[in-house]
């Protein structure tokens, strides 16, 4: 046996080599650590800047897209389509349009969803479906003005429940903005019911709290509660899911629920003119897939209350579109309410 094999010299040399390599690696890491961290910081800043640039574009896109809903619904109704059929086919078409992407690119994500996630997505879809059903049904019992006023209280309920369910507290400026937006929505809602005849004359509260009107107002209020659940669940679930997977599950469940409601109401989705189906297809593609889906995208980055406040801008966009496509000139009351809503949105979003 070679005596040098038992000598401590090779072992010492090996330890020295190891220490030298460790020192070189450590020196390289120390010298590159700061640039790496700086690069990561810059990449994060770029992403934050991109998000800040995209958010205003997304806000405007959502409002404009959702504002087209009343135009398409008006055209479909005027051609003879029942409101519940319009709502059911709207969500059905939207689900079918998004299905190819969801089932090819997001199938694994949907399969990995745990029971809690599935139940939340299903619940969100049911909330959305019942929102459409109750609000549309309210128009059969009460005035459009009263229905709009009650269904527009959705942001108020979201603001009240968010601190408890989402741990999101609003700054004082956001609360002021919420109040202004709600007042603006109420002004627009009452614009068709109130008249100026030597003074402002509006329907009395007693008229709204009796007979068929009371039931209709309750249905509209239930619609506000349902959209509250829809937005709060979306705010809780969206950060954990991609947009496509989320809206596929939610819209799909909403479609199934509305189709069940439609069947129980004795209505059929068949037998209408191609023109009606064309209007409903546009309703699914623009206000639903572009408008509502953008709201759901925003729920990943903004509070549920702020997104709810943004929905109050829909009457402004609808009034503008009605001016161009239906020759309906907005009254000074509608314009005043719109200004209040826009001011409220500005205040509510300042610290978003």
Structure description:
The N and C termini lie far apart (77 Å). The relative contact order is 0.18. The protein has helices at residues 8-67, 69-78, 83-105, 107-112, 115-138, 144-151, 154-165, 172-190, 205-208, 211-237, 243-264, 274-298, 304-311, 314-325, 332-348, and strands at 195-196, 200-201. The chain is globular, with a radius of gyration of 28 Å. The longest helix has 60 residues, at 8-67. With 352 residues, the chain is mainly α. Helix 10 crosses helix 13 (304-311). It has a domain at 83-170 and 200-302.
**Overall pLDDT score:** 78
Order of helices and strands: HHHHHHHHEEHHHHHHH
**Helix amount, in percent?**
over 70%
Residue windows where pLDDT falls under 50 for at least 5 positions: 36-47
Per DSSP, the total helix count is: 15
Q: What portion of residues belong to β-strands?
A: under 5%
Radius of gyration: 28 Å
- What distance separates the N and C termini? 77 Å
Detail the topology: elements first, then pairings.
Blueprint: H1 8-67, H2 69-78, H3 83-105, H4 107-112, H5 115-138, H6 144-151, H7 154-165, H8 172-190, E1 195-196, E2 200-201, H9 205-208, H10 211-237, H11 243-264, H12 274-298, H13 304-311, H14 314-325, H15 332-348
Antiparallel strand pairs: 1-2
Helix pairs in contact: 1-12, 1-14, 2-12, 3-5, 3-11, 3-12, 5-10, 5-11, 6-8, 6-10, 7-10, 7-13, 8-15, 10-13
């Amino acid at each position: 046996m070679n005596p040098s094999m038992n000598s401590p010299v090779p072992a010492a040399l090996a330890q020295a080599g190891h220490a030298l390599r460790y020192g070189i690696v450590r020196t390289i890491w120390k010298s590159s650590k700061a640039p790496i961290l700086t690069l990561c910081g810059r990449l994060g800043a770029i992403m934050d800047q991109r998000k800040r640039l995209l958010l205003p574009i997304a806000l405007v896109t959502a409002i404009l897209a959702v504002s087209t809903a009343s135009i398409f619904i008006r055209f479909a109704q005027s051609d003879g389509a029942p409101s519940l059929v319009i709502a059911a086919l709207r969500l059905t078409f939207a689900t079918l349009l998004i299905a190819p992407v969801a089932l090819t690119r997001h199938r694994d994500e949907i399969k990995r969803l745990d029971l809690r996630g599935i139940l939340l997505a299903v619940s969100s879809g049911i909330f959305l479906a019942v929102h459409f059903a109750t609000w549309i049904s309210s128009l059969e019992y009460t005035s459009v003005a009263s229905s709009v006023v009650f269904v527009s209280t959705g942001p108020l309920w979201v603001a009240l429940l968010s601190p408890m369910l989402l741990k999101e507290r609003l700054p004082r400026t956001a609360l002021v903005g919420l109040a202004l937006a709600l007042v603006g929505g109420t002004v627009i809602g009452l614009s068709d019911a109130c008249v100026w005849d030597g003074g402002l004359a509006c329907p009395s509260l007693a008229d709204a709290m009796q007979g068929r009107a009371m039931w209709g107002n309750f249905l509209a209020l239930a619609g506000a509660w349902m959209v509250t659940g829809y937005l709060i669940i979306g705010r809780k679930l969206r950060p954990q899911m991609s947009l496509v997977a989320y809206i596929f599950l939610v819209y799909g469940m909403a479609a199934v629920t509305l189709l069940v409601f439609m069947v129980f109401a004795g209505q059929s989705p068949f037998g209408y003119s191609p023109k009606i189906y064309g209007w409903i297809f546009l309703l699914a593609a623009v206000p639903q897939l572009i408008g509502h889906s953008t709201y759901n995208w925003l729920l990943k980055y903004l509070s549920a209350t702020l997104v709810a406040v943004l929905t109050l801008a829909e009457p402004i966009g609808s009034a503008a579109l009605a001016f161009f496509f239906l020759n309906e000139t907005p009254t000074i009351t509608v314009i005043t309410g719109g200004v209040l809503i826009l001011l409220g949105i500005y205040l509510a979003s300042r610290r978003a």
